[in-house]
Amino acid sequence: MSLVAPRGQLVIRSSDEGHVIASFNPIAIVCFTRNPKDKELELLTNLSNDAVDAGVRGGLLYVVARDDLAAGVDPRVRATFEQMTKRNAGRTGSSAVVVLSGGFVSAMVRSALAGLVLLGASRKRVQVFSSVSDACAWLAPEHGVAPRDLVGAWERATAHIARVRPGAATG
After folding, report:
1. With contact defined as beta carbons under 8 Å apart, do 130 and 110 qualify?
2. CA end-to-end span of the chain, whole Å?
3. In sequence order, what are the residues at sequence separation of 6 or more whose Cβ sits closer than 8 angstroms to the Cβ of residue 71?
4. Residues 100, 164: Cα–Cα separation, whole Å
5. What is the pLDDT of residues 61-100, one digit of tens each?
């Protein structure tokens, strides 16, 4: 069974109070308020691989909304993204990473991620943001999607996660 959703249709693949993994072809929408479980990382990898295999030049809206960022990026998450990047190099479009949490540590994480992006080969394909609306304003046109449609898909996909609802505390 293909994990690729029809273009412009939101399909939630995995969800609980701490995460959502959804497809809004050609963009995957992912949000975590906790560290991802192995099965969630596997689903994300499969979603990416299926889209590439189907010829979708998609991207990713990856949102981190955790308070426990002092430990940095989980090595499992980093390894998953490195594998996806290597496997799908040149066959995917732009992606956005959003670190919603507030405070000094979150600002440092955003800076570190932006530095890694600038050092890597994906500096034109990945951008780091502090707000979902800014990320959607940049990412949506990169994939021929209206920003308001991507924001709407984000809001529907994450409606059950209190921490990322508009006005919710993020730090």
Report:
1. yes
2. 39
3. none
4. 8
5. 888 877 776 666 677 877 777 777 777 667 778 888 887 8
pLDDT value at residue 167: 44
Domains of the chain and CATH, by start: 10-164 (3.30.750.24)
Count Cβ atoms within 10 A of the Cβ of residue 85 and give its class: 0-12 exposed, 13-18 middle, 19 or more buried.
Answer: middle
Within a 10 A sphere around the Cβ of 15, how many other Cβ atoms?
15
Cβ-based neighbour number of residue 33 at 10 Å = 23
Cβ–Cβ < 8 Å for 19, 57: no
pLDDT digits (tens, 9 = 90+) for 114-137: 555 555 555 557 888 888 999 999
**Residue range 4-57, pLDDT digits in tens:** 778 889 999 999 999 999 999 899 999 988 889 999 999 988 988 888 888 888
Question: Are 8 and 149 a contacting pair, CB within 8 Å?
Answer: yes
